[in-house]
Design goal:
Blueprint: H1 2-13, E1 27-31, E2 36-40, E3 45-51, E4 60-65, H2 73-92, H3 112-121
Antiparallel strand pairs: 1-2, 3-4
Amino acid sequence: MYSFLLQECLPDILNRPGLKVNVVDLEIVYLTMGNVRRFTSAAELTDQGKLLRPYSADNHETIELIPVSLRDHEEMRVRIINWIEDTIEAQTKLNPPLEGDAARICSYCPFYRECWDLWKEKGI
């Protein structure tokens, strides 16, 4: 998706509407308060994982970071359009409440009250 967005948006950001962008390699850097992870489409990388016993600064698990895959531009366009359409449909189409044994999980749902209120509002 990052590759697709870069190809679609970079010409507008640079104010160069005719610019053709061809992404051949992508690197994504993920930052948290405790970790920095690099993912690239070029190769598999390794990084320092969780601290192992006996605890010491150099005794960490080694984790493999799989390469980011670059998808075909048109395939990604279709996927993004489908995701947007699915999101719109999910906001306008209400699935019926669960029934029977499956309904036991409803009380754990953060939208339990809203879901039932909507169904009552519809008179169901």
